[in-house]
Specification:
alpha+beta; five-stranded antiparallel sheet; four-stranded antiparallel sheet; 9 strands
Length: 251
């Protein structure tokens, strides 16, 4: 029977604490959880029949729930859903070969939480608000009219110029929000990864890692930004295990 790996846990001198926790938990299909340990690191595993590893929402929630419960008491690196090996011997080899990288990543995320922030808006409505505030659009439009007044394409070109200008203003506005939020993250000494315009309504999709005792300060910052930018919808999620801040090339 194969071995399903849930996470790599930084045990330190708390192996008895880990054993006690695992005794209260169950893995897939009620299987017993156990630890394969090399020095300060333990891989949390259970027996698994690969036919049971169906990538659906209930199984993903179950897998994430086990990781979340472990993360409440230990620093860990979550494994991808469906990470399996054929034997405990192979898992020992995995820990031994990758021990320095596992340990470095665990130290990076120790006593830290991962959070996610998505910022949504009605982009067309926001463009119109930005257009109304723009002092330069009238001048741009007038210059364009002068240059192409005798052109049969005047209306088309004017429309494209306005669309381009609105898109530029939207991009500039998104950059200003990112800059403003990044300043706060720097004050919190947080690591961050920020993506822009993932779809028409989601203008910013960010994940960040910060110390656990700064959670309340983060919430206050997001609430402050929400009050200052009421045309946007700030959705803060977490805390999570550090899924997006693990950087390991498995050997």
């Amino acid at each position: 029977m194969d071995k399903l790996i849930y996470s790599i846990v930084y045990v330190k001198n708390n192996s008895s604490k880990l054993d006690a926790l695992l005794s209260t938990m169950e893995g897939f299909s009620g299987a017993k959880l156990s630890a394969v340990t090399v020095n300060d690191l333990s891989a949390i595993i259970s027996d698994i029949n690969k036919d049971e590893l169906i990538a659906n929402q209930p199984n993903a929630v179950l897998f994430a729930g086990i990781i979340e419960k472990l993360e409440q008491q230990f620093t860990l690196l979550p494994m991808r859903f469906g990470s399996t090996m054929e034997s405990i011997g192979q898992i020992n080899t995995l820990l031994e070969k990758n021990y320095p990288e596992f340990l470095n990543n665990l130290l990076k995320v120790e006593n830290k939480f991962e959070f996610g922030l998505k910022i949504f808006c009605d982009t067309e409505k926001l463009k119109e608000e930005l257009r109304a505030k723009s002092e330069g659009e009238k001048e741009i439009s007038q210059n364009a009219d002068t240059e192409i007044i005798n052109s049969v394409f005047k209306e088309y070109v004017n429309k494209k110029l306005k669309e381009h200008r609105l898109e530029e203003m939207l991009v500039s506005y998104i950059d200003s929000i990112i800059s403003e939020f990044s300043e706060f993250l720097n004050q919190l000494n947080a690591l961050s990864k920020i993506n822009k315009r993932t779809n028409a309504s989601n203008i910013i999709d960010a994940v960040f890692l910060l110390e656990k005792d700064k959670k309340d300060e983060l919430v206050r910052i997001v609430e402050k930004l929400q009050s200052q930018h009421q045309q946007l919808n700030f959705i803060l999620t977490g805390p999570w295990a550090p899924y997006n801040f693990v950087d390991i090339n498995i050997k």
